[in-house]
Amino acid sequence: MRNRPIPGSSGLVRAMSLFGDPVLHAPCEPVTDFGPSLTRLIEDMYATMYAAKGVGLAANQIGVPLRVFVYDCPDDEDVRRLGHVVNPRLVLADGIEMRGPEGCLSLPGIEAGTPRYDHAVVEGVTSDGDPVRVDGTGFFARCLQHECDHLEGGVYLDRLTGLRRARALRAVRRAPWGRR
Ligand SMILES: [Zn+2]
């Protein structure tokens, strides 16, 4: 039996920042304070991700411009990958580039075929400051690249070009939350 609490069980569900909110479109700051406020932030991020039925969440999606993301995402072998990374760096993104359906909790109701590498490796630290390395393939590699983009102030729409991008931006304008 494990005695670790379920991630997010002590967290608060926070308001989701939506596409167009400046906090989503600027690079986040590195975490320097590894105190209890960081633990609380990560708990809130898990709680918010689960409430929104997402597979990943970056801190700026709840309005906090710090370099942290959480994930609970199946990989291509359907193995559950669960964790968080503080001050992540995308150290490797390689393999074939595949276009696959991608969505984002900050653009609810919208999905678009987005190109991503099939393999990604992220390095960073945990909330305790211990080094962590996360290696993902397939859908989980997509998730890792998506969350790293968020911390650079990017969203997946930035990866789209041409008609796909135009179509996605039109969907944003027509979304009930879109006119901001
Ligand atoms: Zn997202």
Give the SSE map:
Elements lengths: L35 H16 L4 E3 L9 E7 L5 E24 L7 E15 L5 E7 H14 L10 H13 L6
This protein binds zinc ion.
CATH top-level class: Alpha Beta
Count of discrete structural domains: 1
By DSSP, the count of extended strands is 5
H/E order of the elements? HEEEEEHH
* Helix content range: 10-25%
Query: What ions, cofactors and ligands are bound?
Result: zinc ion
Biggest sheet statistics: 5 strands, antiparallel
Write out the strand line-up for the largest beta sheet, numbering strands in chain order: 1-2-3-4-5
Distance between the termini: 48 Å
GO molecular function: metal ion binding; peptide deformylase activity
Family: Belongs to the polypeptide deformylase family.
Enzyme class: hydrolase
Organism: Streptomyces wuyuanensis
Task: Write a short abstract of this structure.
Helix content is 24%, strand content 31%.
Structural account:
By secondary structure, this protein is α+β, with helices and mostly antiparallel strands. Helix content is 24%, strand content 31%. It contains three helices and five strands, in the order αβββββαα. The chain has a five-stranded antiparallel sheet, with helices on both faces. The mean pLDDT is 95. Bound molecules: zinc ion (ZN). It is an enzyme of class 3 (hydrolase). Keywords: Hydrolase, Iron, Metal-binding, Protein biosynthesis. GO terms for molecular function: metal ion binding; peptide deformylase activity. This is Peptide deformylase.
